[in-house]
Design a protein that fits this description.
Blueprint (H helix, E strand, L loop, with lengths): L1 H14 L5 H4 L5 H20 L3 H6 L3 H29 L1 H8 L2 H8 L9 H26 L6 H31 L5 H26 L4 H4 L10 H29 L2 H7 L1 H15 L5 H21 L1
Length: 311
């Protein structure tokens, strides 16, 4: 279980980078960010699968293909589209903190799974996690009151973040249960298959984006003033996300899914929130405020306490 917790922490560290990319590539539309990331992920995954493609394809059934497509659509394509919109509309902190509710949702959704700790044993650790989420959300809204961002823009960003939360909560539960029922795929194989399926969906998304004017020259017109549309930087960042956050991060998460029960896996997602906040502070060049410090301590305390309860 210690190895599973460590893999969950490292996956969170890689996934936290995802929240910064829409700010780094602010001149690109969320549709372009999604397409670039998952086309690159699909290409890397296909290259990894090539040497053993025949063997893996022989063991791949219709149910596996359906699972890969539904998980790729919810956990990658739709999730990242909504997340990128949320970050560009509402900012890194509100988005990461709304999605930070994931630990509670996934824990509740997995309460009946094999190996899950009874909720009464997790009540206090969960309460500490909720207190941490509450602290940081209070801080976000206190701080947001002093900004000049239009209320409608922030509301739209929050709505996108809630949609991303729903997508990833469903994906996390479905992926964990499917991996536990199908041990014939290694964590690396499933991550690569997941990437290949995401690449196929991203190709379809790219065609739709060009037709709708959300990708390419038509998108230059809607780029925010003062932002850059450097395609060299775009593809370099997309490739980095594909290898780090998608390929390696998903493989680490798959290992965690197989080593810890779903009620604990859900709480390990807290690390994504913590690292997203850390990267956001570095990007903005500022220190956490008191409520943000309190939230981070509470989140870490709640997860550590939950690990002890699962033992």
């Amino acid at each position: 279980m210690r190895w599973g917790v460590l893999c969950g922490l490292l996956a969170g560290a890689l996934w936290g980078l995802v929240f910064i990319v829409p700010r780094v590539l602010a001149g690109f539309t969320p549709w372009e960010l999604m397409t670039g990331r998952y086309l690159a992920y699909g290409a890397v995954a296909a290259a990894m699968l090539a040497p053993q493609a025949r063997g893996i394809a022989a063991g791949l059934g219709r149910a596996d293909g359906i699972a890969l497509l539904r998980q790729s659509l919810a956990g990658n394509i739709v999730y990242y589209l909504l997340l990128a919109h949320a970050v560009q509309l509402a900012g890194v902190a509100p988005t990461s903190l709304i999605i930070g509710v994931l630990p509670v949702l996934v824990t509740l959704m997995g309460r009946a799974d094999h190996g899950a700790a009874p909720l009464r044993r997790l009540a206090l650790p969960l309460a500490v996690v909720v207190a941490g989420i509450a602290c940081i959300n209070v801080d976000v809204f206190l701080h947001a009151a002093s900004t000049q961002a239009p209320a409608g823009r922030i509301a739209a960003g929050i709505a996108c973040a809630v949609g991303a939360l729903a997508c990833w909560s469903w994906y996390a539960v479905d992926n964990a249960r499917y991996l536990q029922r199908n041990p014939r795929f290694s964590s690396g194989e499933w991550s690569a298959l997941y990437g290949a399926a995401s690449g196929v969906l991203a190709l379809a998304g790219a065609a739709a984006g060009v037709a709708l004017g959300l990708i390419g020259p038509a998108a230059d017109i809607v780029a925010p003033p003062g932002t850059s549309r450097d395609w060299t930087v775009f593809w370099a960042v997309s490739a980095g996300l594909a290898i780090g956050a998608s390929l390696i991060g998903n493989q680490l998460w798959n290992i965690a899914n197989r080593r810890v029960p779903l009620t604990l896996t859900g709480q390990l997602i807290v690390f994504e929130t913590l690292f997203a906040l850390f990267y956001g502070f570095v990007w903005e060049g500022q220190w956490p405020r008191p409520l943000e410090w309190a939230a981070m301590v509470l989140l870490l305390t709640g997860v550590a306490w939950s690990v002890r309860r699962h033992r």
